[in-house]
Design brief:
CATH class: Alpha Beta
Oligomer: single chain
Shape: elongated
CATH topology: Alkaline Phosphatase, subunit A
Radius of gyration: 24 Å
Structural class: alpha/beta
CATH architecture: 3-Layer(aba) Sandwich
Number of strands: 15
Number of domains: 1
Order of helices and strands: HHHHEEEEHHEEEHHHHHEHEEEEEEHEHH
Distance between the termini: 54 Å
Strand order of the largest sheet: 5-8-1-9-12-4-13
Strand content: 5-15%
Number of helices: 15
Length: 477
């Protein structure tokens, strides 16, 4: 029998026979709906291997075009820690784009110059949004190639079984968050290289408009979707009554335990009203649509990790005066702020972490002011959440074409790139041979994120296979 694209998307989101949606509207775990007798035998056994109090949903912004997001953030102006002269780095014209003017911003205990637009995130204690400060990590991905985005998402070979890091996170977090599915969901993949895999299998990208159309307009049985949640709840519970009322299957104490999980009709009505209202506002697959889709999926508890794409200038080889870079910095930072504000609106500020990871950064030296080229030696990733301190991790210096600081090699300048990182203080290290070396920084970033979200040191060691990776303690609360 032919299956429609809408039915295929519903199955991808919620499983066959809408098992995930049935779990959502009843409050009962998927495994109980699939095999209640077996599930009841072990349903009270904890399956979360980490610290459940630290587990959070993750919204990960990623980009295969190598946006110049890394070129105007704190740490790309004169360095207050190492006193490295970064004044020759090129930035968009601040007279044309006043929000790109270098501005002192307080992150952690230090003040850094950055493009003023970053200040809208809320630099300073608590931030103007009342949210944790942003943590900016200057690291190296070690590739200048667009199609290597999947490899960067695999932390360049540093994950167990070459699992993509969004999937590594999802497998760790799903049991702790009790999400409907373990697999991450991409609502923002702009190119095939940004699509996700899980256990080596390709996952479908679910654009926000497709999510909106599927969940708000699904009226044909058997996939009536969000518009028939109460009826779906009642029919699901009715189908379980025979097992539930059989005293040979369930004891009185077990019935009380099960009853405590069952959602009321009023709760389900609230879910339907709030989620449908949110989803009906999606008009395009832009920043607004991705933010709405991500928050709706989190509120429904569908998946532990949602990936998005917020442009910050794109593949700007030809970008005279960095016009696209400047304008998209404004809209890109605004998207992060909007996401954080809406998380606060829905009471999710302490339950969701925002991350960013791009395939590579961009060149910053003044030899090409008509645009920027690929920079394998530098990329800037962000972490915003209750587990992470506000601050700047690492730093940059002039490098030669082999990635060696020119102060050491004496060779001509290639561009600016990442310095080794002191894992205890987070400061960049100028002297050679110590700290987290650039080649190990991507894996170390992954280990730090996992640790911040509750994974044990044993779990981190098993999931991150780079034996030189270190947790950057300075980034953690």
């Amino acid at each position: 029998m032919a299956i429609s694209r809408r039915d295929a998307l519903m199955t991808a989101l919620f499983g066959g026979s809408m098992i995930g949606l049935r779990s959502l509207v009843t409050g009962l775990p998927v495994k109980m709906l699939l095999n209640p007798k077996k599930a009841l035998a072990d349903m009270q056994t904890a399956s979360c291997s980490g610290d459940v109090t630290k587990a959070q949903y993750v919204v990960l912004a990623t980009c295969g075009s190598g946006d110049p997001m890394s070129c105007n953030a704190p740490g790309t102006y004169n360095d207050p820690v190492t006193n490295i002269d970064l004044s020759s780095l090129v930035h968009p014209d601040s007279t044309t784009y006043n929000y790109m003017a270098p501005t002192p911003l307080q992150y952690g205990s230090k003040s850094y110059n950055a493009a003023g637009v970053w200040g809208t995130l809320g630099a300073g204690t608590g931030g103007v949004l009342g949210l944790p400060n942003a943590t900016f990590c200057h690291i190296m991905t070690n590739t200048p190639v667009h199609p290597h985005e999947p490899q960067v998402l695999q932390l360049m070979g540093a994950t167990y079984a070459a699992e993509m890091f969004p999937s590594v996170l999802a497998k760790q977090l799903a049991p702790c968050l009790q999400t409907l599915q373990t697999q991450p969901i991409s609502v923002g993949a702009a190119t095939p290289s940004e699509a996700l895999t899980f256990g080596g299998q390709a996952l479908p990208t679910i654009p926000p408009t497709a999510l909106q159309a599927t969940l708000t307009n699904q009226t044909v049985a058997p996939y009536t979707g969000m518009t028939k949640l109460q009826a779906l709840r009642d029919s699901t519970l009715t189908s379980m009554y025979g097992w539930y009322n059989d005293s040979s299957q369930t004891t009185p104490a077990q019935k009380v335990f099960i009853d405590s999980m069952v959602s009321s009709q009023q709760q389900v009505r609230g879910i339907a009203q709030s989620q449908l209202a949110m989803l009906s506002g999606i008009k395009a697959n832009d920043n607004n649509g991705q933010i709405t889709a991500a928050i709706a999926l989190i509120l429904m508890g569908v998946a532990p990790v949602i990936t998005v794409h917020f442009p910050f200038g794109g593949d700007n080889h030809s970008d005279p005066a960095f016009n696209s870079e400047a304008t998209q910095h404004q809209t890109g930072v605004a998207a992060i702020v909007q996401l954080l504000q809406q998380l606060a609106q829905y009471g999710l500020s302490n339950k969701v972490t925002f991350l960013s990871l791009n395939v590579f950064g961009r060149t910053m030296a003044a030899y090409n002011t008509a645009g920027r080229q690929h920079n394998q030696f530098h990329e800037m990733s962000m972490m915003i959440g209750t587990a992470f301190k506000g601050g700047v991790i690492g730093g940059i210096a002039p490098l030669d074409q082999n990635g060696v600081p020119i102060a050491q090699s004496g060779k001509p300048l290639f561009d600016y790139g990442s310095l080794p990182i002191n894992p205890s203080s987070g400061a960049p290290i100028v002297a050679p041979g110590s700290g987290i070396q650039p080649v190990d920084q991507l894996a170390s970033w992954g280990a730090t994120v996992l640790t911040g979200l509750g994974a044990t040191s044993e779990t981190v060691s098993s999931l991150i296979t780079d034996t030189n990776a270190q947790v950057i303690q300075a980034a953690l609360v």
